[in-house]
Amino acid sequence: MELKYLSFIVIFSLLAASASAATFGGRKALAPSPAAAADLGFTHLDIKDPKVIQLANFAIDEFNKAQSTNIAFSSLSEAIQIGKNFELAIAAVDNKDSNEYFFNVSVDKGVKKVTSFVKGG
């Protein structure tokens, strides 16, 4: 198993241990309460916050540069902060096809860097 999948697997494992239901990318997933999430070391972010959307667009731009593609941001379905790292689940459009992408973005002293990305299925 590749390391780039590890952080999402850990998060999904933590979410599966919770008792409250929420939607994630159109699928049902279990999500802890904000207090429980903080105890587990991560924070759910407001996906409508302009700063979070800006970070998602940064991730898409970096993906396009690295992959020589031209996908366009459509929506953000999940955003989680773990310390200086941000896990983002983003719907993006490429040639009228919508796909989900998972990004890990590190922000340290104002410097942003995409550390991993995975195209969902």
UniProtKB/TrEMBL annotation:
A Pfam family of this chain: SQAPI
Key word Signal present: yes
Keyword tRNA-binding appears in the UniProt entry: no
Protein name, UniProt field: Cystatin domain-containing protein
GO molecular function: cysteine-type endopeptidase inhibitor activity
Organism: Salvia divinorum
Alphabetized InterPro entries for the sequence: Cystatin_dom, Cystatin_sf
Residues in the signal sequence: 1-21
Keywords in alphabetical order: Protease inhibitor, Signal, Thiol protease inhibitor
Superkingdom assignment: Eukaryota
Residue span(s) of domain Cystatin: 46-117
